[in-house]
Amino acid sequence: MQRKLMHVGPSFTSYRVQMAGVSENTGFASPDFLEAMKNSLEGLLYVAGADDTYLPFILPGSGTVAMETVTSIIPKGSRTLLLTNGVFGDRWIPILSSHGLDLDVLSAEPGRSVSLDDVRKKLDTGRYQNLIMTHVETSTGVRIDIEKVSKIAREHVDRIIVDGVASLGAEKEDIARLGITAIISASQKALGAPPGAALIVVSRSALDHINDFSYFFNLKNWITPMERYLEAKNGYLSTEPVGVVLSLSRVFSDIRAAGLDERIEEHRRLSLALNEGIEAAGLKVLAERDLWSNTVTAVLSDHADEIVRGAMDLGIEFATGVHPKIAGRYFRIGHMGYVNDFDALAALSVIERAAAKCGEKVRIGDGVKKAQEILYDLTKKNGGGQM
Ligand SMILES: Cc1ncc(COP(=O)(O)O)c(C=O)c1O
Q1: 140 lines ligand 1 (CB under 6 A)
Q2: pTM higher than 0.85, yes or no?
Q3: Of the ranges 12-21, 22-31, 98-107, which one carries the lowest mean pLDDT score?
Q4: 296 touches ligand 1 (CB under 6 Å)
């Protein structure tokens, strides 16, 4: 049986996106690749809501490569306030520490977000020059309000860095309007391309002072290559993941054709149907309701790992829980990339069956019904439907 991928990354991609990456043998200096790289860099600026005061970067790698590389814009001797709502927020701690960068951490319990009051109090001390936050925390499905946090932070710090790995392309980032200095992401999550590319967008003014650590992980060395790629010229520094960029370019063309706001709304609509569907079936969503994200739903259950195994047999791959405080007691649904209404309905049907089979008290059919109603109502209202 061919399984459906509703993991939290790599996410479900389309046949056309996959084929774009494998249909040709393509060299890194070929016109096809250079055109795809230019289109992807421009697309990256578009989905981030950046203007020409920002520079986009596409590097071989992953989200963690992007995290590590963007820290080169944090000056030695400055102090960072890190807001973390889970495992991927916590990942910044060893990254910054390994480069000798000072930080303080504000963290939240699983399913919750750090409070704006606490952020304000910390920033009021005047000790911080940088703030880092994760837009959607993939380990819990919690979305932080980057607009409200940025508004407070702009008055206090010189640099705001956002991890958009599980959000870029499916949540509103709007970095120029919000005064965000840099956003990082990766090809395989909310964008729905195959894994292999690290994505970064940085304000050009932040590129004037870059730390002197590392060769590969230092943005300074990637500025000229990216400027050249933006002109469709060869910018080789290290071999780019050619096939991934060809696929990514197709994703950005798809997003432009659909419209970014429409794509974000599609994700919101699917998320609402899935989250409401889970609760209607009698299960509980981990994230507090006002923190539900467009891309990841974490579901509490004492049978979580068993449900994930059962769902795999029924044809859908979900993700187990990774937050150390509640691992084994929840699982995660990824609804990003190219998932559609019928994937959401199938996901709920599979979860209801797998949960019932392992003794969870679920109301078979209620989750699917609720989601079906929401999707139908919102389709009527928006006139939309499928990505
Ligand atoms: C929010 C977030 N940040 C960073 C990462 C790390 O990305 P990668 O696994 O591509 O290195 C992940 C991966 O799941 C993530 O979800």
Answers
A1: no
A2: yes
A3: 22-31
A4: no
Index of the ligand 1 atom closest to the CA of residue 62: 10
Residues paired with 319 in a beta bridge: 332
Centroid of ligand 1 to alpha carbon of 366 (angstroms): 33
* Boundaries of domain holding 334: 4-9+259-382
Helices (H), 49-99: 63-70, 87-90, 92-98
The total domain count for the chain is 2
Instruction: Say if residue 78 is exposed, middle or buried (CB neighbours under 10 Å; 0-12, 13-18, 19+).
Output: middle
CATH for 239: 3.40.640.10
Q: Are 119 and 153 in contact (CB under 8 A)?
A: yes
State how far the Cα of 52 lies from the Cα of 43, in Å rounded to an integer. 13
Same domain for 113 and 40: yes
For ligand 1, the distance from its centroid to the CA atom of residue 27, given in whole angstroms, is 28
Domain co-membership, 37 together with 127: yes
What is the token pair recorded at 77?
A: 């001797």
Q: Please tell me the total number of residues recorded for the chain in this structure.
A: 387
Assess if residue 387 is contained within a domain.
Answer: no
Separation between Cα atoms, residue 129 and residue 113, nearest integer Å:
22
Whose Cα sits closest to atom 5 in ligand 1? 63
One domain, residues 196 and 275? no
Same domain assignment for residues 304 and 320:
yes
Pair of tokens at residue 328: 């084994």
What is the C-alpha to C-alpha distance for residues 20 and 4, in angstroms, rounded to an integer? 20
Q: In this structure, are residues 112 and 70 in contact, taking their beta carbons and an 8 Å threshold?
A: no
* 11 close to ligand 1 (CB < 6 Angstrom): no
Same-domain pairing of 196 and 327: no
Span 83-142, pLDDT tens digits: 999 999 999 999 999 999 999 999 999 999 999 999 999 999 999 999 999 999 999 999
Which tokens hold the place of 250?
């197709």
Which amino acid is it at 320? T
Asked whether the CA dihedral 362, 366, 370, 371 is positive or negative, the reply is: positive
CA distances, 29 to each of 25, 150, 326 (Å): 12, 39, 48
Sign of dihedral through CA atoms 186, 203, 51, 160? positive
Distance CA 337, CA 8 (A): 10
